[in-house]
Structure formats: C-alpha cells, structure tokens
Amino acid sequence: MASFPRDRFDDIPSDVDRVGAHRSPRKRGRGWIAFAWSVVATAVLVVVGLFALSFFDSRFQLPFAQESATPSETPTVIETAEPVTDPSTLDPAYLAALTLSVLNGTPTQGLSNTAGDQIAAAGWPNPSRAAASNTSEPLTIVYYSNPDDEGVARGIAQLVGATDVQLSDAFPTAAITVVLGADYVPPAAG
C-alpha cells in the first residue's frame, strides 16, 4: 500500500464531531411526509385504474357512479283476461308474429336457457334469451307491452311459475318479456 506524506488535511480538530460525508441531520417527521405522498399516489392510481376499468369493461360500474334506477310507475293490472295456456288455440298468424324474451335476473348461469326451452317446449314461439341488467331480482315477473297480450302473458306466467304479470313498456324488444327472479324453479328433468 502506498504511503503519502502528512499534510494539513490529516489533522482533525478535536471539537468537530463529523465523520464521513458532511450532511446535516435529517429533520424529524420526514418519514411521515414520504409515507403520506405514497398513500396519495396509491389512491390516485387506484381511482384512475377503476375509471379505466369501467371505461373498457361495460359490465363493471363504479359504485358511486351507478345510476339508481327509478322505477317507472307501472299501473297495477287487475286480472281481466283469462290465461291462455294452449298456444294451439291462437291464430297462427298472431302466434308467428309474437315475440318473446327471457331475461335471467339471478346470478345462476343458464336459467334463461332453461326457461326459454320450457316455453318453447309448451308450443310458444322460441324466445330470445339473455342476462338481465340486474342479477338480484327477487321475483319472477312477466311483462307485456300490449293490453291485448295479457291472456298470453298470464298463460306464460302460469307455465314458468311467475309471481306477477304487469303491463309495461320497459321492454320494447319483445311483446312479452319474462324476467326470472330468485323464486324461479326450473322444471324437473324428465
């Protein structure tokens, strides 16, 4: 190892307590400031991520951004029509033009297909099937948009075991719409 002659920088005064790099001591509380900034940054990233997820996935909705559905006033229908339980008694042209849909309002997958098959097997036109926007419907309800279809709606309600039949224009894609609820009991496999 090389040895160098002593110079003025080798003598350290005795009243100086510094060793190594000459930095001032850290101020108290600096660790909490860094922690607070990291919490704020995490919160911002989470919020931006949730907004991005709701933008790219239409099924995901932010809890505070959900629109509360205000149910439209649906008039209470007094049973005035007899249930039509046999579709062969109807005019074939009417039956060919009749549009039906089944919406699964439960978290159980495949119930709309089960109920749709049940309706088609009874002789009714094959209904379209889909998941409802709300998967926590408590009751199975049959909606019809034309007062002339009330008897058919009541017959389909009896077939699927619906709790209620209502006149409503909430489902414009079909003349009769069955919304399955938690009370729907699929038919036993035979």
From TrEMBL:
Keywords: Membrane, Transmembrane, Transmembrane helix. Residues 98-184 form the LytR/CpsA/Psr regulator C-terminal domain. The chain crosses the membrane at residues 32-56. The keyword Transmembrane helix applies. This is LytR C-terminal domain-containing protein. The lineage of its organism: Bacteria, Bacillati, Actinomycetota, Actinomycetes, Micrococcales.
